[in-house]
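assembly run, all chains below
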Amino acid sequence: MKLSEVGEFGLIDLIKDGATVDQTSLVVGIGDDAAVYVPGRGKLELLTTDMLVEKVHFDLTTTSPWQLGYKAVAVSLSDIAAMGGKPKHIVVSLALTVETSVEYVVNLYSGIKEICREYSVNLVGGDTVSSPEGLVINVAVTGEVEPAGLLRRSGAKPGDLVAVTGYLGNSACGFDLLRRRGWEDYEYAWPLVTAHLTPRPQVALGQSLAAWGATSANDISDGLASEANELAKASGKAIKLYSEKIPLSPELVQAAALFRKKPLDYALYGGEDYQLVFTISPEQFARLPQVAGQFSAIGEVAEGEGVTLLGQTGKPVRLNPKGYNHFR
Amino acid sequence: MKLSEVGEFGLIDLIKDGATVDQTSLVVGIGDDAAVYVPGRGKLELLTTDMLVEKVHFDLTTTSPWQLGYKAVAVSLSDIAAMGGKPKHIVVSLALTVETSVEYVVNLYSGIKEICREYSVNLVGGDTVSSPEGLVINVAVTGEVEPAGLLRRSGAKPGDLVAVTGYLGNSACGFDLLRRRGWEDYEYAWPLVTAHLTPRPQVALGQSLAAWGATSANDISDGLASEANELAKASGKAIKLYSEKIPLSPELVQAAALFRKKPLDYALYGGEDYQLVFTISPEQFARLPQVAGQFSAIGEVAEGEGVTLLGQTGKPVRLNPKGYNHFR
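ok done. output:
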């Protein structure tokens, strides 16, 4: 069915169903001029936004509408996770071409609602407009955090360890796989492609990190090199990373060989992992609950500036932020 | 200067300056993963978002970057006004083509910061990405409202008057003028073109309306016909409007003649006025502070459904929502 047949208001009716996951703090959801909710008592409010553009952030040939909806929300939830917060409400803006089918939009919202259910987040509003060319999706998310649970980029202290959650580089390698015909035949491809298409933001861990003693944190959206540089810059400190300690999945190592790339480069410069990088004292790190290697210490904070990578042999290398520059 | 020369982080440094207008509740502004603020004690939080797309909502030949920035924020502040709220924080997402100059972006943010200053709103974050074709701007805004000050679309009661702020139709007629060569020569054109390019959301009036007895409200973004239908539908009531009571500016009447259009049609179907339409008892309406005719009673609420327009002569006409359908 064509969008013109259901119209903007018909579309809103389709979207409304299942949009509210947690009614406790919601006063007005979809359907008025703005959403209304009760802020958490004694909590701080968080606000962030991310825009995904067709042919820049995703490709309709390799991303299903369900995956696109899921990921667009994941990207923003990850920012809330990096602040130690719990995401609460999202508003979604969509620019759609006239050729977009109603089914496509319904599937896209199905992905949005799936991740909202998983993370107990309410879809409370948005805007749907036409686009002369290419799909654009913007998600703005609010969250809340106890003042003592807030994680900033600044706050790293000399002697702190630098640590990360999960594996790094999977998403970027998954992106390379997606553009290779027949990737489905490689068994190791699936976790990588999944990491790229439907990343799972580290909200639960992020919410605990401050209580566990983390002194600063960032989510890894632009590659470890960029994110470590941001922590170093915001904290006014230097960071040393040890290449052999950076957690790489066995699947990444296998797939990287296929592309004749170094697995470590995916971790350093690939981006879109939506894991967390944080700093914490060695004593507190030792006390972190280690479920299935969910935390890896990969380096140290020192006085100074910039980020240095140390291999098992050879000279230390200065790591510059080489994340995706949108305008290059 | 090209965007590629300053990069995403250079751009953020340019944007940061002057972004914070009201420091009182802001904990973290631009530059971390999310903005952090203290919600108003005992207040409800509001959240809304709007997306403007080049060639759909604006045209670079008739809209300056400053005006575009101003208007993109105005559109969202108007939604907060329609809920009776005070806008507090915005995040701005921009998709820019590689050809966009740094100067263009700086001017756009200058317009954003101007309206933020006027309405005491903080610019606290955003996202800047590339677009293969055409500029896209999305603004998400949070606001706050006392529970007793909240205005919803539902709540209109039989016997209530329907009232509006300001003049209607100016913006749509201004849009027609903008596409006519030599419009600058018509003196009456300026207030109309200004109403279109830099609309002023009715935040101050919106914040007082609930205390003054308004029972429901909507902002007029899609034309009076659509907005009145929304109030009627949400409230489960009928609305009667009197055509001769709908406030039309003398400039609109003059300019409409130029286009051989009925001035009233601009008010009913034009949209983008960002005035407020609300319902209120006749007694309470009589007590409204009337500064320079800022309120006009234009109709009544009754039992039933739908919106009817009554002229000075002739039969009542059913008014259907004929606002802009994005997918037609």
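The radius of gyration of chain A is 20 Å.

The CA atoms of residues 177 and 188 of chain A lie 10 Å apart.

not gonna interpret more than that til we talk
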